[in-house]
Amino acid sequence: MHASAQPLLSVKDLAVEFDTEQGIVRAVDGISFDIYPNETVGLVGESGCGKTVTGLAILGLIPSPPGRIAGGRIEFGGRDLAALPEHAIREIRGRDISMIFQEPMTALNPVFTVGNQMIDVLMRHRGLTRAQARSGAIEMLAKVGIPAPAKRVDEYPHELSGGMRQRVMIAMALSCDPKLLIADEPTTALDVTTQAQVLEQINKLQDEFNMAVILITHDLGVVAETCGRAIVMYCGNIIETAPIEPLFATPRHPYTAGLLHSIPRIRDVKLAELPIIPGRVPDLLNLPPGCRFADRCDRVRPDCSEARVALHRDDGADAAVACLHPLVHQAGESHV
Amino acid sequence: MSEPKDTPFLEVRDLKKYFPVRGGLLRRVSNVVKAVDGVSFSIPAGRTMGLVGESGCGKSTLGRTLLRLQEPTSGQVLFDGNDITRLSKRELIPERRKMQIIFQDPYASLSPRRTVAQSIREPLDVHRIGSAAERERRVIELLDVVGMSPQVRDRYPHEFSGGQRQRIGIARALALNPGFIVADEPVSALDVSVQSQVLNLIADLKRDRGITFLFISHDLAVIQHVSDEIGVMYLGRIVETASSEDLYKDPKHPYTKALLSAIPIPDPTRKRKRIVLEGDVPSPMNPPGGCPFHTRCPEAMAICSTTVPTTINAGTDAQPHEVACHLFPG
User: Fold this and answer.
1) pLDDT of amino acid B246
2) How many CB atoms lie under 10 A from the CB of residue B78?
């Protein structure tokens, strides 16, 4: 489906390192992926897999020290974001690429009104006057479904509910019409009924603003309902990527399959025992030489531990997997 | 399946917990948050009741109040027939041994300065049970129950992952052989692949040791696996109670239906009509009159804003299904 299109964002062999007291940790270890205009891609994995760090790296927000981009390229609009100086990134951040975070209360400034924070962004990136920026802010608040936006614009973050705050964050992020939105666990701190509202809003706005969305999440249910394809990360590597229908129906990496099996979900018949992935994620300071999932994998063979396993894409396929012995599915067979 | 229902292990009668709110200089003098506002239910011995609701609905306050970690405003909590709300602090101590709580955040509930063994044996030390050698043996035994190696006994909490810490928290809760455990969002802070490990452990404890559980969660998908019965809470009240089977197959309260339909399903081929609720949960300081859910209810009628619905049994005597909604008049 993307064969002819030019990618909007192209991440190539990205590596991000952090200095810790115990040594250097490679939180992201050589990942490559493309994002095309107007698509929604889920970046999925469990805590510590490197998904958030990837998002921060794209925006030049890796705290340094102790962190740094240790290698690779982040190509966007003909430039390499990984090599740009801070002042150049600032022009892109918030205007061409925006980000929303898990906890809107910590991302919003508590001492300024909602309007003040939005007006700053609009004046800086779009060169509007204060009055124009104010009406632009009210218009954006209305677009994200905030009732009485002309009143809310003068309120402080603490006066809003969690769902409202996240809508304000979305309004701020979209106010400069970005080409790419990076949403890091945007609904994880919200209640399930509020989550449904916010996800619906993001989907609607994506069409209206014609932007690409990278949705960083641990929740495969959210991915299934909002994304066109997904990138699955484990331990700093991408282990599988595919459009969501085949990914959920016929996952090829044993970790993806295990993750899909172990999600608590409402079942028609209660199981005696929930399926699990045994063991736990290896320590990033002490990684095995071969496949990082080998210790927990029920398909493990001796060659899995020999060397790193690269992401392999069959010719012409839009899916790829990093596994020497991937699951094989018969035509028409559904795994889950 | 049919346990004798006449002697419930835990029975809660019209329990209320109100928190007074004192306003600042220019604000109103005081207000009251009705965190738990007249809740009644019972759990038969060895069964698990799931309590589900969104943040601020009062489910955690309910869990703490019925252990008297917070003093109830009114109502009764009969624990094995004994009303613990009437006990003095001194009389409460022996009862406390029989009930324990597992908290959501295993990072916050273990002291960073204590070793695993010290944390697990702390309840034994507090209640002066057994000799030093017996307490040590018990620690090793408990580690085994929660699936951890005895070698971890001298290590500190920061050396463990979230799932392992939750196992340590569970081992500590089991130290006194309690008959009743409140599990307050025990897997919410854990990764999915670890969640199921801990849920299986809890299900095993229930089966092998006959422990009675109140399992509190915001997640209907999590609660299904461990619960025999489920109560749905909204703004301090239980709006629906049914067997785990019934609740998912035949939800009756519009709030329960909305909660069920809001859960994202990890299956891209299953597109469905979602009930998206308008607005947010109202403030428990100023709950709406009538049915507390009427401001967001897609099926609200005129009566809903004026009259609080009474709880009726919409099921059968053998399979009760209680619901508090005007769509189900008595």
Assistant:
1) 94
2) 16
Cβ atoms A126, A137 nearer than 8 A = no
Q: Is A75 exposed, middle or buried (0-12, 13-18, 19+ CB in 10 A)?
A: middle
A236-287: pLDDT as tens digits: 999 999 999 999 999 999 999 999 998 888 888 888 888 888 887 888 888 8
Mutate to test the interface with B, among A191, A203, A277 (most CBs of B within 10 A): A191
C-alpha distances in Å from residue A239, one per residue of A31, A106, A315, B64, B141: 10, 32, 18, 43, 39
pTM above 0.90, yes or no: no
Across the interface, whether the CB atoms of B267 and A248 are under 8 A apart is answered yes
In Å, how far is A110's CA from the nearest CA of chain B?
19
Q: ipTM of the predicted structure?
A: 0.81
A231: β partners: A43, A241
Whether the CB of A249 is below 8 Å from some CB of chain B: the reply is: yes
Q: Which of A310, A314, A288 is nearest to A237 (CA)?
A: A310
pLDDT tens-digit map of B169-216 = 999 999 999 999 999 999 888 888 788 888 999 999 999 999 999 999
Ranges of beta strands (E only) in B137-258 are 180-184, 212-217, 229-234, 237-243
CA gap B27, B23 in Å, rounded: 5
Rounded Cα–Cα distance for residues B226 and B199 (Å): 7
